[in-house]
Write a structure and sequence with these properties.
The complex is a heterodimer of chains A (363) and B (388).
Chain A (H helix, E strand, L loop, with lengths): L1 H10 L4 H10 L3 H27 L8 H7 L6 H12 L7 H17 L8 H20 L15 H27 L4 H16 L2 H15 L2 H4 L2 H26 L3 H9 L4 H16 L1 H14 L11 H10 L7 H34 L1
Chain B lengths: L1 H5 L1 H34 L29 H35 L3 H15 L3 H13 L8 E3 L3 E4 L2 E4 L1 E2 L3 H23 L8 H25 L8 E2 L2 E3 L2 E3 L2 E3 L1 H28 L2 H9 L4 H30 L4 H4 L4 H12 L2 H30 L8
Antiparallel strand pairs in B: 1-2, 2-3, 3-8, 4-5, 6-7
Helix pairs in contact in B: 3-4, 3-8, 3-12, 4-8, 5-8, 6-7, 8-10, 9-10, 10-13, 12-13
Classes of the chains: A mainly alpha (363), B alpha+beta (388).
Chain lengths: 363, 388
């Protein structure tokens, strides 16, 4: 102890920042060369990006596509000209404010559910059901004097957000049921459920969405089919539930067995043990993987384009695919990538933050 | 009666019977509705359609295919394409992942930053967007006349990538690939397998190199014997009219899928490899260094094997996941298994049978991949408790 701290003091006689610099960038000749090469690479890429995206870019659509052809940089003019199409799809032009408000409501609900105040099953459920109801009324209309808009005209970002949140909202209770059934003491139920979960997990999501959209009408009578949108959301929820059930099961397994035994010894019923002892702890244990599952699910929402929905990616394809903007595909994809990145990155940072906080709590 | 219901055992039986009954009810209900729908549409069920000819084209196939070929052959081509794409893109993404993981675990700040930017960027963008992006990039390349070229032998244009190839029949190419892989596996087995552990290391190495050499000779012999008559063995792509002739053509669809999966999968695999590298204790690396092993030997003989042991289960899941990502080929028109099934459904109307084939196909592929990797995991897992 004393010997090492003595050396440390000698080392820290020089400014600490200088030491840190040497340690991280110039530990040896090889490291110095790698730092230099890396720095040149970063500066070169950064400069090219800046040059392309800002310095030589065209931002206003006033000059039309021709102004872009003459410039050497990015053509953000297409975003200026087509942002409404990308964000709202085929939704009636004069009602775009409703689609935008609906999106903002869901984002606000999502941010609210990141706050520990709402971390009670009842509060979370109320929050989300209220949020989804107002989203649905805003989008669908027909109530409070809002003009009705059928689901076939929904599109763009609000459709993406709707499919994601509806899928998770239906999928989460389903996942809890799946996890409990898989852990059931009744062998027939446990085995059947593990078979179902494994089968769903080994199929690609695209095939499940395709089955929901195209095959389900084949095996369901007319009165049970519903709109294609709701069938696809059901398929989405099923897929989410199969993965989330395994995460919850992992969370349950991490609970010390003494907890359940103590609850049994107190004479609590199965439902009391599950709802008051098991699930709260399981969710706490499984919070980090649950959040990364949310991130993955949000990105996977984009797959509904394959069964023919006009969500944000499809409307992006339409934005550059028609008219004179055919050359400006990179700008459209960068714009959509930024939208997805904003959602996915902030959610995953929040997950990393939670993980840090929870680790502090445990020690 | 109520007393009987309260007995735990009886109640459990009743609950399970109800559960099975409900499931069976749903299945029977679906089957009855399906047969009614089929009757209404005047279709016959069964797998007879597999032997009817398709009459539609497939854009990419490893084995010859024509309009008159039957459905089973189209489905086989789809499955082969899926496996082919998976083999390419899983290999590429593993290389990308390893490289980025090494960058992220060095003590060098700049390299760390590069690795982190890469992972954070590509993990947070949906893979289908990356597929669309690369497809757009590849199809917007210059026309064949103005193609980029590498020393006049390889060309990159809007029609895809053209590489030099060999003028051999498909069968001999297949035999050559299989015998090449067999020779490599056999050589590795001799060099590292427990079966040969009693031989001296020098003798093992000699035997292993001999096997590899015989394998290489056999591959060459098969290729020379199987060349298409009246052609040169080496086929170089050259511009003829509006397109290139000869050589191997990597279509924009295949190139976009492989690039997107390699980059997206590489970002995920990098995090897994990084966790593996971090799981190797510092003391073990220092011990290897103190034995006088070179930097590369420490990496290849100590760090990598120990890291792979630690992460193989997670890696298995990620590989299975990436394999499923090949189904996105339908978005850009790459004829993978799912796309062939989807086209078959719209063309033949045999919905239930084809969905069954689709699910069975994916269950088989996934099960095979994960059981092979799990077997490797069991065989390389360290026995005993002293090291982990």
């Amino acid at each position: 102890m004393t010997a090492t701290s003595h050396i440390d003091q000698q080392e820290t006689a020089r400014p600490a920042a200088w030491d840190w610099l040497r340690e991280t960038f110039f530990a040896s000749r090889l490291h110095a060369a790698m730092s230099l090469a890396g720095a040149i690479l970063i500066v070169a890429i950064g400069w090219h990006l800046l040059d392309w995206a800002v310095l030589n870019a065209v931002f206003s659509s006033a000059g039309g596509p021709e102004a872009c052809r003459e410039a050497s940089g990015a053509c953000w003019a297409i975003i200026d000209a087509r942002w409404r199409l990308i964000l709202f799809g085929l939704y009636p032009h004069e009602l775009h404010w409703r689609s935008a408000t609906a999106c903002i409501v869901i984002v606000a609900v999502a941010i609210a559910s990141c706050m520990p105040v709402f971390w009670r099953a009842a509060r979370l459920a109320t929050l989300w059901i209220a949020g989804m109801a107002s989203f649905y009324i805003l989008m669908r209309g027909g109530l409070f004097g809002l003009a009705p808009v059928s689901e076939a005209k929904w599109g763009g970002l609000s459709l993406t957000v709707f499919i994601f949140s509806a899928g998770v909202l239906v999928g989460m209770p389903l996942a809890i049921v799946f996890a409990l059934m898989r852990r059931s003491e009744l062998p027939v139920i446990a085995r059947t459920m593990s078979l179902v979960i494994d089968a769903v997990r080994s199929l690609p999501l695209v095939t499940i969405l395709f089955t929901a959209a195209v095959v389900l009408p084949f095996v369901l009578p007319g009165w049970l089919q519903g709109d294609k949108l709701y069938r696809v959301i059901f398929g989405f929820a099923l897929f989410f539930a199969a993965y989330q059930a395994e995460i919850i099961r992992g969370g349950i397994q991490a609970i010390p067995p003494g907890q359940d035994e103590a609850a049994k010894a107190l004479g609590l019923s199965y439902w009391h043990r599950v709802s008051r002892i098991m699930l709260p702890q399981a969710f706490r244990n499984a919070l980090p993987p649950t959040i990364s599952q949310f991130v993955i699910t949000f990105k996977e929402t984009s797959l509904v384009i394959i069964v023919g929905f006009f969500e944000v990616m499809a409307s992006g394809n339409a934005a550059y695919g028609t008219g004179d903007w055919r050359f400006a595909y990179i700008e459209v994809y960068v714009f959509i990538a930024l939208i997805y990145f904003t959602f996915a990155f902030s959610l995953s940072r929040y997950g990393a933050y939670l993980e840090r906080v929870m680790r502090v709590g445990k020690n | 009666m109520l007393a009987v219901l309260k007995l735990r055992k009886t109640r459990n039986w009743i609950i399970q019977a109800l559960f099975v009954g409900a499931l069976a009810g749903i299945v029977i209900f679906g089957a009855v509705t399906a047969s009614q729908t089929m009757q209404a549409q005047g279709m016959t069920s069964g797998f007879g359609f597999l032997f009817r000819s398709t009459g539609w084209p497939i854009s990419f196939s490893l084995i010859p295919y024509g309009f008159g070929d039957p459905y089973w052959k189209a489905l086989l081509i789809g499955a082969l394409n899926t496996l082919f794409l998976a083999a390419i893109s899983l290999t590429l993404s593993t290389l990308v992942g390893l490289l980025v993981a090494v960058l992220r675990t060095t003590r060098n700040g700049v390299m760390n930053a590069l690795g982190t930017i890469y992972v954070d960027t590509f993990r947070n963008i949906p893979i289908i967007l990356q597929v669309f992006f690369w497809y757009a990039v590849y199809t917007h390349l210059p026309r064949p006349r103005e193609a980029y070229d590498v020393a006049g032998t390889a060309f990159l244009s809007a029609r895809g990538l053209f590489l030099p190839g060999l003028n051999v029949t498909g069968l001999s190419a297949f035999i050559a690939i299989v015998s090449g892989i067999a020779a490599i596996v056999l050589a590795l087995w001799i060099a590292h397998g427990r079966r040969f552990s009693r031989k001296k290391p020098a003798a093992r190495r000699r035997l292993s190199w001999t096997v590899a050499g015989i394998g290489a000779l056999a591959v060459m012999a098969v290729l020379v014997a199987g060349r298409i008559p009246d052609t040169q063995l080496l086929s170089l792509p050259e511009l003829k009219g509006l397109n290139f002739k000869g050589g191997i053509n990597v279509s924009p669809e295949l190139a976009a899928m492989a690039t997107a999966i390699a980059i997206y999968g590489g970002a995920y695999l990098a995090e897994i490899f990084r966790a593996g590298f971090l799981a190797v204790r510092r003391g073990q690396i220092e011990a290897a260094q103190s034995l006088g092993l070179s930097g590369w030997d420490v990496f290849a003989k100590v760090r990598l094997p120990l890291a792979i042991r630690a992460i193989l289960p997670t890696l298995t899941n990620q590989y299975v996941w990436l394999l499923k990502a090949t189904t996105l080929g339908i978005a850009v028109g790459f004829a993978d298994f799912f796309m062939v099934v989807a086209v078959s459904i719209t063309q033949s109307g045999q919905t239930m049978e084809l969905i069954g084939i689709l699910m069975a196909g994916f269950l088989t592929i996934n099960y095979t991949l994960s059981s092979v990797l799990n077997r490797i995991n069991r065989s390389i897992a360290l026995k005993g408790q002293n090291i982990n």
